[in-house]
Structure formats: C-alpha cells, structure tokens
Amino acid sequence: MSSASAPRKKPRQTPSAPGLPGWIPRDASILSFNARVLQRAQDPAVPPLERLRYLTIVSSNLDEFFEVRMVDHLQAHLDGETRPGPCSPASYAALSAQAHELVARQYDILTRELEPLLRSRGIHFLSGAERNAAQNQWLRHYFEREVRPLLLPIGLDPAHPFPQVASKSLNFMVRLEGRDAFGRSNQVAIVRIPRALPRLIRLPARLASRPGEIPLVSLSSLIRGNLQSLFAGRRVEEISQFRVTRNSDIDMTDVDVSNLRLALRESLKHRHYGRAVRIEVSANCTDTNALFLCEQFGLDQQALYRVNGPVNLVRLGMVMDLVDRPDLLFPPFQPRPAPGLKAGQSFFERLQKGDVLAHQPFESFDAVIDFLREAVHDPDVVAIKQTIYRTESGSQLVRLLGEAVRKGKDVTALVELQARFDEEANINWAESLEAVGVQVVYGVVGLKTHGKMLLVTRREGRRLRRYGHLSTGNYNARSARLYTDFSHFTADPVLTLDMHKIFVHLASQTELPRLGKIWLAPSGLQSRLLARMAAAARAARAGKPARLVAKMNAFTDEALLEAIVAASQAGVQIELIVRGACMLPAQLAGVTDNVRVRSVIGRFLEHTRIVHFDIAGRQELLLSSADWMSRNMLRRIELAWPVEDPALVRRILREGLGYYLEDRALSWTLRDSQYLPPAPVPGQPSVHDRLMAGHSEGAPQPAGAAGRSVSL
Fold this sequence. Notes:
Elements: H1 26-40, H2 48-68, H3 71-79, H4 89-120, E1 123-125, H5 133-147, E2 154-155, E3 170-177, E4 188-193, E5 200-202, E6 214-218, H6 219-226, E7 235-246, H7 260-268, E8 276-282, H8 287-297, E9 304-307, H9 319-322, H10 347-351, E10 356-360, H11 366-377, E11 381-388, H12 396-406, E12 410-415, H13 423-435, E13 439-441, E14 448-449, E15 452-460, E16 463-471, E17 483-490, H14 493-508, E18 519-521, H15 525-541, E19 546-552, H16 558-570, E20 573-578, E21 595-600, E22 605-606, E23 609-615, E24 618-624, H17 630-634, E25 636-642, H18 646-662, E26 667-671, E27 674-676, H19 687-695
Parallel strand pairs: 1-6, 8-9, 11-12, 12-13, 14-25, 17-22, 19-20, 20-21
Antiparallel strand pairs: 2-4, 3-4, 3-7, 5-6, 7-8, 10-17, 11-15, 15-16, 16-17, 18-25, 19-23, 21-26, 23-24, 24-25, 26-27
Helix pairs in contact: 1-2, 1-4, 2-4, 3-4, 11-12, 15-16
C-alpha cells in the first residue's frame, strides 16, 4: 500500500477539518492576508503612488474573492444551512463582517491619508464642488464628445425590466420626477457605463489651479454632473452609483465535454452574468434605492457595501499611467543577468558544465527568453516542448515557438485552458499557435497543468541530448519583474528524461512511467511530502535533529496540516514562510509549539515554492510549482524537483530561505490565529532591499556567495 493510501494515525489534539474550530478558516485567512497588504498602503515609508497601488491590489483581490470564494457561503446563508461544514450562515456573517471592515479601512485610507498626501504632492482628484468654471466647461465638452454618445439610459417599466448588469461594471440608478415622453410616471432609469470609457480623466495643464498641479476627475463624477442632460423634460431626484459582483468561477471538472476549448468558450459567454454576490453603492445611496437594488439581485443588507468614494478602486491604478512622477514611486531597479551566464556564451555549452539558477526579479528573466531563442535558431535542435499556464500579451516566448516551427523543428505547447481568468487569452494563444503549426495539447480534463517546464532536444553527434528549464513561476516576462521565483536550467539526464516522460504522459494520456527525480502531483507529490514529514518525526522522537523549512503561497491542505502538527508534537523544528492563506494555528500550546509561520509582504509578490528537509543530518532541497493546497496536491499537474548542485543549494538556502527567516522589516508572525505586525530593527534592511542590493546590475557578488551557507 502506498503512503498516499495507507491509513495514518491522527496525532493527539489535531485540529478538526478545515473550516471548523481548530483550523483557521481558509477564507478568513485570505481576507487576513489582504489586511496585511492593506497595511502597506498606510506605511509612510512606502512612496505615495506605491501606497495607492497597494490599495488597488487589495480591491482587485477582493473582487476575485467575491467572484470565486463567496458564493458557497452566500448560498448556505440564503438556504439556512444547518449541517456542519465550512460554509454556513455563521461563516457568511463572519466573512461579511471581515470584508466590510476591510473595505471601510480602504476608503478611510484613501480619503483621510492618500488623497491629501497626493494633493500635497501635486496630484489632485477634483470633486464637483472643487471645479471652477473653466474646468467645468472643458469637462462638459469632453462629456458631449467622448461620453454622451456611448450612454443609453434605460427607463424601467413592464416592457423594460431591470437590465442584465455585467459583473463589476459601473452603473447609475436614477430616480426621476415627472412623466416620460409617453405620459407614464416610471420613476427609475438605469445608465450602464461602457467599460471602454477611461475611469479617470486628466485635465490639461492650463486648467490646473496651481502651476505643476495635475488635476484628475473621475468618470463617475463627470457623469453624475451631467446626468440631468440625459433626461430632457424630467428632473433627476436621486442618483446612486452601483456595481455588482457576480460568481465568475468556471469549473469544468464534472462537465462531460468532447472538446474542452469549445466548452470553455461557451462557458465564458456566461461568466459576467453569474449569481450576484455583492453590491457596492456610493455612500449617498438612499435606503430606498439600496433596498431596491438588493431585491433586484436577490441579496440582503450583508451583501451591500456602501463606500465613500468611487465604487471601483481598482481603476485608480490608472493614476500611474496618467502622471509621470517617478519621485512618488519605488526607485527603479534593474536586475543583473543570472550568475554563471556569460554574454555570447551558448546555453548548451554552459549547461554541459553544470546547472544554472536565476532568481527573479533580482536576476533577469531574459535568460529564459535567450534560452528558447538559442534553441529556435540552433540548427541541431530538433524538438521543443513547453507548458503555458499564464503569459502576457505579446509574449516573446509564444512568438519564438511559432518561429521554431517555421525553421522545421517539432514544437509542442501544452496550454492550460483553465487558468482562472486567463481562459480566453489562453484559448486565443492555443489557436494562434495551432495556426502556425505548433502541436497544441491541453493536458487532462479535470486536472489543471500548473507545472512549468521547457524542454529542448538537441542532436549532438550520434545521440540526442535534452536541456531543460523548470520554474516555480509562470512564463510571463511582466510578472517576472514583480514576482519572486527561481528558474532552474539543467542538462541533468535524469531530470530532463523525467520532463520528457511527463510531456508524453500528458499528451498521450498513457500510463506514467516511473520518474527518477521529479515528484509529480497528483500521482505522488503529497504522499512523498507526507513520508518525509513522518521520517522527520521518527528522527525527532529518536533524539536526532530534524528540521523542515518551507516557503509557499498558501497552506490549506488537510493531510499536510495534520502531518505538520504530528511532526511538531514529535519535536521537529518547523519554519514556514507562507505569503497568503494559512490554516495552521502556529505556536499553539500542545499542538504546534515547534511551528513558526511568517508572511512576508513587500515590494515584490512572494511566489517562490521551496522545501528543505534536514533529517538526522541528511539534507534535501526541492523547488516546486505547487502550493500546499488540496487543489495543487490532488487536482493539478504539479512538479517538485531536487536541486543537487552544492553551490546552487547554498544560494537557495541563503537567498530563498535564510534572508527571509532573518527579516524583521516585512515579516508578519502568526501566533495562534493572529498575525503580529513586523518589528523593524533600525539599520537592518528588509529582505527585498537586501536582495536588490546584492543583485543590482553592476553590484559585486554578495560575500560568500560561492561557499557560505546560511544557518537555518
């Protein structure tokens, strides 16, 4: 019997199932993460426009939370669910209260801190009351020219019921006095605002109140000031800005499909019109209008969010595009090339001498592009295989795959069509790749392919040799400048043969042969992690040293949670660096005394997945594409692979784990179920500052980079 299916003894005092007393509820932990991100928007050490960016990030995260996570709690609330489980009326009430508090903090930060701060720096959000005659005249002309032609008010009557409102679209509800053109007294009209209209408008410099000032006006303020002109012969009595968020998750797991791409395209048509889960309204919305909107969308007051400002803070991210104020942003950072790679040197020659590691964003993502480009132009390369989970528009990597086909190479792209909110983009990528002759496959229905691999096969003399790239992050040059990830280039014959076997397995869906080094989900990654934790626990009980240090984005898998508790109780010393949701109560007496959990929130998004075991003197270091979540362990194709080169191991222990364990400036510490804020030490740089200083273009190699290890 494999370790995955063998019965495991539940440790004493183990918390019960996720969502019940014991574990920290997953969705509450997600909102807690966003509260930590929001704290960055209040940090005076962060430049003003970056503080605004953090505010918009929280709004974007909350949008996704309501689109994906909230609907089951809402349904349990509406159904009066009484059976025990993670979703109940109580869970909905608790999450709603937590979300309301978070939203209130957002708008308080915006109106009390950021708007006055930005105004003092010359960026002024002009309200209607603040605009002078010249500004209003310019805005009226702008409205008539750019906005009015796109607006279509819909008066509600029996022939015109409440319109279908798309998720996250901006709308106005208007109450009118008088009768319409046909003599009827219909009182309510809905004005839908097209997404194509910019949500912020920059006025010309000549209209600034002071020299050097940048005047900005929100689209909602502009429309509000001109709504009366849309209703000739009637008087506008009340105006309520509103925005509805709908359940937008697409789950193809249980769908019987003969063509995944076509089935997804059909599902995408309905994404923006799913079940309503949240309504946002402006603070001046009357109770009558709020009740009317709740009735239209089948929601109650818990789902209604009154906000003191624009109902979509995500669009405030436009400010960074409208103003050229680098003094209000983080200082620019230029990463250096990955160490071990010399300009003009062949990747293939270099990898024959040993593996290469690139630490993004501190080292350039260009190495990945250059690796593929060399493969495309090398006449000895015969085949290229790559997974695509998320990539950016205009991706050089995708264009290079098409170029490789034109050069006569065999090219296979495994495109994950079900990457959440990237489905349409990936369908388009798949179709464009097929159009130029790339063999496109979609993996396995019901299992998202989340592992990141790029495999190059090259003819060298009388044999074929493989070269591979494995990564903890996506093939996305844009996010590689913002996310921390490790890229691993290798010519290791066992690792690259494993990659080849996995590509064949996913394309042909034949049985997976035994792998030499890669741990693959869902066929064994979880069980091997559990086996290592059990071995660490046995070693600790025998009085031998045992330690686990791991870094991930989220930790919610019940089997791994239980294994960590058992290992802690056996005496294993455990350090976890978990950016987002973590269901494990840390340093809980009698349960997790030996577990320390920290969350690092800073300039870059922590995205690296690392696992380091030190069991009775035997060390093992793995990089991975997988978070410790049930979906990653059981419902996705995920990879974990060992790094064996001693110099690279030392680098990862130092840069990927050691610096993080030493950080005090950005690290939140989890105690039981509460996070304690960072406690900066004067003169001690943050982990991100430390890494940037050591990896900037032209910076010297950090001391001991080749030989010093970090004590973990």
